[in-house]
Amino acid sequence: MLHPELQRGRGAPANVRSTRFDDPVREADGDWLDARDDIDDGAPPLRTTVSLETPRTIISRNTSPDIGFDRSINAYRGCEHGCIYCFARPTHAYLGLSLGLDFETRLTAKPGAAALLRVELSKRGYDCKPMALGTNTDPYQPIEATHRITRSILEVLAEFRHPLTITTKSDRVVRDIDILGPMAADGLAAVAMSVTSLDRRTARTLEPRAPTPARRLAAIRALSDAGIPVFVSVSPVVPAVTDHEIEAILEAARDAGAQGAFSLPVRLPHEVAPLFRAWLDAHFPDRADKVMALIRDMRSGRDNDPDFFTRMRGAGPYAEMLRTRFKLACAKLGLANARFELRTDLFRVPTRQGSLFD
User: Quick check: is 171 in a domain?
Assistant: First the structure.
């Protein structure tokens, strides 16, 4: 199940397969598959592959009481950023793929997303509320540079004057300032930039193919200068790995132009927990037990707490200490609570009637 060596530039140290939705994991039995690496002189380097997906709808809806949005769009499945802690990793099991290296290398894209969105927004009785982008995998991961699906979604939302929020850890978002700037001027757009660490080495280990912390801070500055409300997400906080940086991240983001901030402790749902532990053993063996002990302290003695509300906040003295530090730092720096107050009264379904009178 585990690769004997780490894959350079990838986050997961393993390609653990889920057994919740597929056949049991194959065990070595000495056949030719087990000898392949010896015959071929090792496995080839992992390359990113992208498959095209044709869903029937593009808007995902949720009724979770502890999430501040009820609809979202995900242009891609899987994410090349390779963040080891990503709570979306288990969704790859629905495709019969691994939540480990498959999640980072075997991606799917939805090129028809904009057309589907146009149809759904045009339906009679559509009730406009802010659309969230980046709630599962990053809308500005590297393949967006080629596929530009996120940009096509923004173009439709702008045409319909539909409010949106974006959560990302990529400075590629600044390429769409020409769309986001005018929308923000009308109260229709806000961006949250995720910054987990200011240390380049730590960030590269946690999020191997995400832009560097310096580039993310530069993106906050560019968005702010363009008049786009931008917030910093100090998320997730990883005990004994990034928790000491909370105040420094907030100050750097404030200096770059962030208006507000929010923070979440690390979550390890389903098979993410053993994968994360394998990552700790590979990169932080000196503190792996301490990290997991602190995580369990926040999760009622478990690796993960799936309950509403506490899953986002954590519980216990360590979680309360993190919240207190975050709150005090925000107050000192003048950072407001992250609230995306966006307009919904400007929504309209565009028509071509005006062209009859040109």
Answer: yes
The answer to whether position 144 is within a domain reads: yes
131 in a structural domain: yes
CATH of the domain at 84: 3.20.20.70
| Cα 40 off chain centre by | 36
Q: Which domain holds residue 206?
A: 51-261
Which helix (H) or strand (E) is 291 found in, with range?
helix 288-298
Residue 108: its H or E element: strand 106-109
Determine which helix (DSSP H) or strand (DSSP E) holds 132, and give its type and residue range.
strand 131-133
Total count of domains within the chain: 1
End-to-end distance of the chain based on CA atoms, in angstroms?
65
Question: For 7-37, what is each residue's pLDDT tens digit?
Answer: 666 766 756 655 555 555 444 444 444 444 5
**Is 239 part of a structural domain of the chain?**
yes
pTM equals 0.87
Residues written for the chain: 358
* Cβ contact 152:112 at 8 Å: no
Distant-in-sequence contacts of 311-315, Cβ < 8 A, 24+ apart: 311/66, 311/267, 312/66, 312/264, 313/264, 313/265, 314/265
Residues 6+ apart with CB under 8 A from 96: 21, 22
- State the DSSP H helix or E strand holding residue 260, giving kind and residue range, or none if neither: strand 260-265
